[in-house]
Amino acid sequence: MRTLALALLVTLAACQPPGPTYHQDLKPLLDARCVNCHVSGGIAPFALDTWEAAVAKAPAIADAVQSGRMPPWHAGPADVTYLRNPSLTDAQKATVAAWALSTVEGDAKKPGAALPPLGGGVDHVDRSLQMAEPYTPQTSPDDYRCFVVRWPETTTKYITGVNAVPGVPTQVHHIALYVIPPEAAMFPVAWDAEDALPGYSCFGGPFGNRPQQFAVNVLTAWIPGYQGTTFPRGGGIQIDPGAMVVMQMHYNVQGAASPQADQTQMQFTLADTVERRLAYQPMLDVAWVAGQMKIPAAQPDVVHQYLADPRSFFTTLGSPLDTSNGFNLEAVMFHMHTLGKHGELWLEKADRRRIKILDIPAWDFHWQNEYQLAEPVRFEPGDKLRVKCTFDNSAANAVETNWGENSTEEMCVANILSSQ
């Protein structure tokens, strides 16, 4: 009888599906969502590109995935869907958790199927620009530095894709890229000349601690793990001869024995014509810029919001788009500083429908991202946009703050990638 029972257990065990293994189940997930950062020499604090490395970090992997901290994606549920969302499904999270308990290697000769690519990236490079001189980060752990590069093309072009190639990947936390039109090109050139080191100090934008002298023309943001951005639906951003490109570099050298000289390169895909002309247009309350965005000290939930039809503001700023008949929302790049807690953008239709375009319930200044909409959303005459920011100023050493470029000040902006 005992022999029969044992045979039955063996048979049942043989019928059970095998547990997840590294090569068949975990590695495809890591390769597609993690190792762009978690690789030797990458920005992440440890590599995950081998079985041994994954085994050593198995509990940490499971915890980060189950909590949603990794892969980094900060957009919450909304009434739209986004391109290039790296978040894992519940089934994939369960696979990671199950593997972390067993850490079975599996057969390297029988790899699991690769995950479908998220898209994005640039399929070719038409123009590369590099920082004119190497720069070694001067402050730890963070150094925000802007570098000015003259746009070399002699005819009007459209930027349809952009990528970054950091000189020292372990130090480059993120990059914000701005196009300065020819009529304002003298400003960043002068700021660069005032500083003895390459570039000039800046935080939150290309102005540093200077008053804002011209409209900010955002091009894109780059974070480790992305292979670049191709603008959606055949669109492009116009750039004219005589323009300047400003790279705002966020260096993080925490834990580094000594900072290294970096000379990051930007790569561009260009076109002479595009299917749709794109432009980033900022949604904000101009009263905030005038000092009416007070954030009192010792307050954990300070809300500032603004509801308006922004088209006249876009025109005032010199938008290249004709928005008289409305415009399409193609993507959103939200921006606050370090007190930011929660960011939202809503489209409020003339018929009183409310469409949540973007909700970032746990804002993290160090993981700013562009969220491209899978399908554009139309803003029509009679509609309004609502931008809403919640700030936490309850730290022990908190002081009242207001709008500004400095790290001790704040902002509330939804940079909307628009088309006509």
Tell me about this structure.
The protein contains 8 helices and 18 strands. It is an alpha+beta fold and 420 residues long. The protein folds into 3 domains: 85 residues, no CATH class; 148 residues, Sandwich (Jelly Rolls), CATH 2.60.120.310; 142 residues, Jelly Rolls, CATH 2.60.120.230. Helix 4 packs antiparallel against helix 5.
CATH second-level architecture of the largest domain: Sandwich
Cα Rg: 24 Å
CATH topology of the largest domain: Jelly Rolls
**Total strands:** 18
The major sheet is characterized as:
9 strands, mixed
Superfamily (CATH H level) name of the largest domain: Copper type II, ascorbate-dependent monooxygenase, N-terminal domain
H/E order of the elements? HHHHHEEEEHEEEEEEEHEHEEEEEE
How many distinct helices?
Answer: 8
Strand content: 25-35%
Mean pLDDT level: 90
